[in-house]
Amino acid sequence: MTEVELITACRQGSSRAQKLLYERFAGLMLGVCLRYLRQRDDAEEVMLMGFVKVFRALEQYRHEGSFEGWIRRIMVNEALGQLRRKEPLHLAIDDLTYDVPTTAAEAESQLNADDMLALLADLPAGYRTVFNLYALEGYTHPEIGELLGISEGTSKSQLSKARAMLQRRIAAANTVAVSSTQPKELYATGRY
Amino acid sequence: MQPEDIDKLFRQRLQGHAPTPPADLWSRLEAELQPEKKKRPMMWVYSMAAAIALLLMVGAGWLLRGPQSPTTGSETPLAATETPASAPASVMETPAPEASKEKMIAQATPSPAPASTTPEARPAAATRPQASAPALVAAASRPARPRSAEASANPTTKSSFTDVAVVRPPDAQPERTQAAPAPTTPAQTLVASATPAASSAAPVGPIEVEVRRQAETPAALAAAAPDRRPRLGGILRQVRNAVRGDQVNLADAGLPETLTVQARVAGRTLTKTIQL
Q1: Fewer Cβ neighbours under 10 Å: the N or C end of chain B?
Q2: Could you report the predicted ipTM of this complex, rounded to two decimals?
Q3: Residue A92 located in a structural domain
Q4: pLDDT digits (tens, 9 = 90+) for B155-207
Q5: Residue ending a domain, choose from A55, A86, A117
Q6: Structural domain includes residue A93
Q7: C-beta of residue B241 within 8 angstroms of C-beta of residue B247
Q8: Closest-CA residue in chain A for B17?
Q9: If you measure CA to CA, which chain B residue comes closest to A26?
């Protein structure tokens, strides 16, 4: 069944088609939701509610752009809503700047998807959200500013802070892998 | 490592990342989608049920409240009297010059005399404000008649009263008492049908003055209608009246008091409604 056929069948209320559509996108969308939400339960809840919205809004899908992108946008919006409820976006500017250690390429290659998700989950909600929207969803800073109700400049600064923190942690993970000497984890001081 | 590199790294590793969702998530989603499907038919069922119930209620009210004995209906002591002297000349063209309009109203108000004969009629008569001097005058002006028969024929006194005074010219039968057994709404039609029969006796043609007075006194209500049913019945009856094109009597439905004077002179009908 092609995507168009599947959408048509879902619009007609076919339960079987809905299940097929769900199965086709559930894994990917859970991956999206997990990037935004720290807790797996929350991510699953968001995915569920996202799919409910997808099925209810299916009539409005105009076959413009990819269907996956359309679903993804719904999921992202749902995730942002959940974040506002669960983890208020701490967009406070972190003034501390650190020297970013250069990381060996090998260390990066060792990280799998779950490690990356864990790194993201450790980020403050604001950093994580901006990084997700910019680096993984491809939103621009003006778009992010509008989505989150922040200025473009704040979005930019959040992004650079998020990047710096991630780099540091990847380096840390690498260092842990190489030796037992561990640099002080400043983010763990509760200052974010 | 450039800042953009870390974006790329995450994108590469996470773009196609599709963890397996828990197995029960689909059933939860299905349950979530289900109410949406069922909501509309259910609303239909509810609205249909409500409409049917309403129709049944109206129908039952119609059947129960319609052609019925006067005891259950909230109607009308109907005193049909022919008094040559009490015909008000101002309202209708009759050869009864000495009668005044005031007297006519007084006539319309059931006089205490018949009311006192029936125990049920008493509280309603007592609560009526107009049952005072003019009424007494009117009653006194009338010759003594077996009026108790009329009153006993109309044992009900409820929140509304319809007093029909059929006034005849003097050359008609001098004293004729019509005791109409006041059913609920057919009372009006009964009186109307009774009039042509009387017209054969009267050469000038009958002049029928119908004064309908709706009293909404709490005491009268309490005495006559202890429960709400007569009120509901009254409303239903008024609805039926409206459907038939009859006079809608708002007082029966618990609305302010009105006084309707309707005079039928041979073919002409004069109607005057006074909101008290």
Answers
A1: C
A2: 0.79
A3: no
A4: 444 444 444 444 444 444 444 444 444 444 444 434 444 444 444 444 455 66
A5: A86
A6: no
A7: yes
A8: A31
A9: B21
Q: Rounded CA gap, A95 and A97, in Å?
A: 6
Contact across the interface for B6 and A102, Cβ inside 8 Å: no
Residue A119 domain-assigned?
Answer: yes
- Residue B45 Cα, gap to closest chain A Cα (Å): 21
Distance CA A172, CA A163 (A): 14
Q: For residue B107, what pLDDT band results from cuts at 50, 70 and 90?
A: very low
Q: Which domain holds residue B210?
A: 79-275
DSSP per residue, A34-98: HHH-SSHHHHHHHHHHHHHHHHHTGGG--S-S-HHHHHHHHHHHHHHHHHHHHS-----------
Q: Dump pLDDT digits (tens) for A136-182.
A: 999 999 999 999 989 999 999 999 999 999 988 888 776 666 554 44
DSSP helix/strand/coil, B168: coil
Structural domain tally of chain B?
1
pLDDT at B137 over 80: no
For residues A54-79, one letter each, b for 16 or more C-beta atoms within 10 angstroms of the residue's C-beta and e for the rest, the string is bbeebeebeeeeebeebbbebbbebb
Which of B18, B22, B32 comes nearest A44 by C-beta? Answer: B22
- Within-domain flag for A38: yes
Q: For residue A63, what are the domain limits? A: 3-86
Considering B122-131, B179-188, B266-275, the range whose residues carry the highest mean pLDDT is B266-275
In the numeric block, which tokens belong to residue B100? 């005044």
The residue of chain B with its CA nearest to that of A102 is: B1
Count of structural domains, chain A: 2
- B121: tokens are 């009629």
Determine which of A16, A52, A132 to mutate to test the interface with B (most B C-beta atoms within 10 Å).
A52
Interface of B with A in 24-83 (CB under 8 A): 25-26, 28-30, 32-33, 36-37
Q: Which residues of A touch B32 (CB under 8 A)?
A: 48-49, 52
Helices A152-178/B3-14 angle, 10° precision: 80
List the structure tokens of A73.
């946008």
Indicate the length of chain A as a whole number. Answer: 192
**CB-based contact (8 Å) between A113 and chain B?**
yes
Q: State the best of A14, A20, A59, A117 to mutate against chain B, taking most chain B CBs within 10 Å.
A: A117
Same structural domain for residues A19 and A82? yes
A15 to chain B: closest CA residue: B30
User: Which residues from A are below 8 Å from B2, CB to CB?
Assistant: none
Partner B, chain A 57-96, Cβ-Cβ below 8 Å? none
